[in-house]
Structure formats: structure tokens, C-alpha cells
Design brief:
288 residues, TerB-like, Helix Hairpins
């Protein structure tokens, strides 16, 4: 926040300095021209001296501005929404979408665009002259809100099938790196999609591996370990065991941790599974 205020302040100072410099140059050249006229006794009225001074100051500035516009014409006359569409198209290309699938997805994502406009932008991307770095650099220099909007669009497309694959996430992370967006901000946007039902392939695989480990653990779980986990003695009756199991299962059921952090939910799931496995081991051991 402080950096933004400082940048804004320095920008305003620079603008005032430029204006002051132009005025100072005008006054300076006006004085020089007046001295030359007086020295050589040239008959020129006051209006003409002002015009000459303005010409000396503004003609070089005009050439500088023309040069700047020529050099940065691609950036100056670029439409932000068009560049967002181009980067989205690049994302779809990375995902190996066919040309027709790419165009249809773009039309659904950007309903304001016509078929001809989408085709035109698509053809521009496919041309050899197109440089993707220009699009990324353009959006990179735009507001933080614009860059977040693009990240949202990419996640929205990736989540069409309700599953965010590892490949899709890797490509998006590569894109946001080019857009200078921090990973923790990307994670927050992603979580908003997860709450709406988006599933992550990475989390699914992690859960599958965790379940495998739990199953392997349960195979080798000894009865005394199961008694320790359940907090009961070897003399426990069937009714007592069932009562303890229900109490613990209710306490550590994942549904009770929905509003908690992701870490707490994972711990609860692990504990719940452990209790379930221990209960099964004791039942088999005591032949209940």
C-alpha cells in the first residue's frame, strides 16, 4: 500500500516537473530571442517572438512524442480485453484444444465477442509475427484487478469439467508467473472455485495415497494398538466397544470440521479412519 502511494506521489511530481520544465524552457528561449532581436536590431513584433519561442520548445517535443508513439504503437493502441482473449487462447492451445474447441470456448467465455472477432484474434495468434510476450507484458502492466480477472478466467475454463488437473494447474501457475501474480493470491482464487465444487486432481491423488497407507497400516495393526486408539481395555464388551466407537466417530467425523482449516479437516479424516480401523481390528480379535 505504501509503495503504491509512493509511486503515485513520484508520478505526480514527475508530471509537475515536466510542466515546469516546458514553461521554463519557453521563458528561457523567449528571453534569448528578445536579446537577439535587440542586439541585431531586428524588427519583429511581440506576437512573432512568442511564436518563435513556442516553436523552439514544442517542435522538439512533438518529434519526441511522435517517436514514442511509433515505438510503442502496439501497446498504446492495444485493447485490454483483446489481450485477455489472446492469453486465454494461448492457455487453450497449451491444453491441446482443437481450433474449433478453442473458438467455441472463447465464445462462451467472452459472449460480447462475435464469431468473426474471435476468428480474427485466433488467426492473429497463429500468425508467425505474433509474440506472446507482448500480450503478457501488456497485461502485466495493467491493474492488479485486470490480472486477477484473467486468472479467474483461466481457472473457470480449467474447471469446466469440475476437476482441476495437475497439468492445468501447472500451466496456470506458469501463466500467473508471467503476469507477476503471487502464488498465495492464486490459491485464494482457486479456493473460491473449490468451495463451489471444483476438485483438484493433486488432492485426489494425495487422498488415494493416504488411504493406501491407512489400509496398509490397518493390515499390520496389532490388537493392543487398537485398544490404545479406542481407549478401552482388552476386557471391553461388545456393547461398551460400540458405545465408545460411536462417541469417537461422532467427535472426529469430518462433517463437524467443514468450517475449520484444511489441516484440521485432514487430521480429523485421518483420526476418523484410524478409529474405524481400530474398531474393526478389535471386533475381529474378539470375534464380535
Amino acid at each position: 500500500m505504501k509503495n503504491k502511494k509512493l509511486k503515485k506521489f513520484l508520478k505526480n511530481v514527475l508530471i509537475y516537473l515536466i510542466i515546469y520544465s516546458i514553461i521554463a524552457f519557453f521563458v528561457f528561449f523567449k528571453i534569448i530571442i528578445d536579446n537577439i532581436i535587440e542586439k541585431y536590431n531586428i524588427h519583429v513584433n511581440e506576437k512573432d517572438t512568442v511564436i518563435i519561442a513556442l516553436s523552439v520548445v514544442f517542435i522538439p517535443l512533438l518529434f519526441i512524442l511522435i517517436f514514442y508513439f511509433i515505438k510503442n504503437r502496439k501497446t498504446i493502441f492495444t485493447n485490454t480485453e483483446d489481450e485477455i482473449v489472446k492469453i486465454t487462447c494461448l492457455f487453450l492451445e497449451e491444453l491441446k484444444y482443437s481450433p474449433d474447441e478453442t473458438k467455441n470456448t472463447l465464445l462462451k467465455t467472452f459472449p460480447k465477442y462475435s464469431v468473426s472477432k474471435i476468428s480474427k484474434l485466433y488467426n492473429r495468434i497463429k500468425s508467425k509475427k505474433y509474440n506472446s510476450n507482448i500480450s503478457f507484458l501488456y497485461i502485466q502492466n495493467k491493474t492488479h484487478k485486470t490480472r486477477l480477472y484473467l486468472t479467474y478466467i483461466l481457472l473457470k475454463i480449467a474447471g469446466i469439467d469440475t476437476v482441476l488437473t495437475i497439468e492445468e494447474e501447472t500451466i496456470i501457475l506458469n501463466f500467473i508467473r508471467k503476469l507477476k501474480i503471487q502464488k498465495n493470491i492464486f490459491e485464494k482464487i482457486k479456493q473460491s472455485f473449490v468451495k463451489k465444487g471444483l476438485k483438484e486432481e493433486r488432492k485426489i491423488l494425495e487422498e488415494q495415497n493416504r488411504q493406501k497407507l491407512i489400509n496398509q497400516f490397518s493390515k499390520f495393526m496389532l490388537p493392543y494398538e487398537a485398544y490404545r486408539i479406542m481407549g478401552v481395555s482388552p476386557s471391553v464388551t461388545k456393547i461398551q466397544l460400540k458405545k465408545v466407537y460411536r462417541t469417537l466417530a461422532k467427535k472426529y467425523h469430518p462433517d463437524k470440521y467443514v468450517e475449520k482449516s484444511e489441516t484440521d479437516i485432514q487430521k480429523a479424516e485421518e483420526k476418523f479412519q484410524e478409529i474405524k480401523e481400530a474398531y474393526d481390528v478389535i471386533k475381529k480379535s474378539k470375534k464380535f
